[in-house]
Predict the 3D structure of the following.
Amino acid sequence: MGSGRGPKFGRARYFIMNEASHLWYVPESGSLVWQSFDSYSLLYNERSGNTHVLDPLSREILDLLQEAPRDERALLQELTSLVGDDDPEALSEAIGEALVAFDSAGLIFPAYHS
Amino acid sequence: MITPDRIISPENGAQVTRDLNRGRLKFKVGPLVARIGTSYPLLQRDFLDIYRGYPLAGPEEFVHFNLKVDPVSLLRRWVRPKIIADGGFIASPFVPLRGDLAILALEMGLNWQVGTRSDQFLIFHSGVVARDPGPGEEGPSRAVLMAGESGAGKSTLTAGLAYSGWRLFSDEFGLLDTSDLHLYPYPRPISLKNESIEVMTKRLGEEVFSRPFLNTLKGTIRYLRAPAESLINGHKPARLDLIIFPQYVAGSTGGISEFTGAEAFAMLRGASVNCDRVGRSAFDALSELTGRCKVYGLQYGSMDMAIGMVEALMEDAA
């Protein structure tokens, strides 16, 4: 049905998914198993069978996304209040890198503003 | 109880050879039973040499692995012989070897079977030895697992410890039961290479070694037979208490570094062959081991030095 609309819809969807302001969430967080050693966290994802090592900032980001879907700006605000605002650019960059890593590992999914 | 007629020995060599020819020799190494066959006389002789003392399995016992090791063709049986292991693989992971290296084909075939088809255990690429309680002592047997890169010296150290009062579990595989964190013995002959051969023949003499296998891809190889005590007690597991990553460095005066937390976990996970296949119980076991066991890097310059260091570390781990 509507074969002419497919590509246009595909492009629009791709555009939206690359907007920095969209929400991220952790699907089926019950499938994540945590262990903590020193300041690092080990995460076993039962859905993928993969194990991940998370530094404290990455752990905090994933915890926030498990709590509720958030976009990058909301994460920056909340983490700034936790770690201070000495270097907001570096913090923003670290959040962006963590989101890319989580996304490629299948730990977070994009959601959309209603 | 192992009785003399139920072990591989020169006395029943004719029967063992017949069973090898028929492809139905069943023998046990620790908790695993292999059924092997070969019609190649040189391999039959080498097998009888390095596997003497191993228990034969009864007709009713479950077979974990099947392996045939034979010439690749009738021509290659007689003309520049080429031998290959066949374990029922869809695509064979092996290349044919020269006829005089047929025992290497068998050893590689068995290693492959263990590494890919024993997911009832969490498997580590490692040497393992254990201390049994002495007469009048109580408590469990306690194992040390020695992991690391190939060539780091773990087989040599395993061999040194196995002939210095420790019980040989394996120079290749640590088989961990994730339900109780006990290791199971898998005491195959120890494969020693190049300089390690000289070190160990000086300590132990020639009679505990196979003939040398020359010009292999890894240089010269000789197999060191498992001590008889290790075969007699091949069914007894031991609690894993100590994990080390040994590294032989010529001229080293010895060094120890401790790994903790996530770093120790990552190193231990890296040494595991099948943690992805075992899944959640592997993660839980590795986490518990990381919390419970000491994990050390150990640099050594001589066998006596290394044995002393391992004994001291095990003492501390008590």
Q: What stands out?
A: Residues 1-17 of chain A have pLDDT under 50 and may be disordered. Chain A is about 45% helix and 20% strand. Chain A touches chain B at residues 33, 35, 37-38, 40-42, 44, 46, 49-51, 53 (CB under 8 Å). Residues 3-28+56-111 of chain A form one domain.
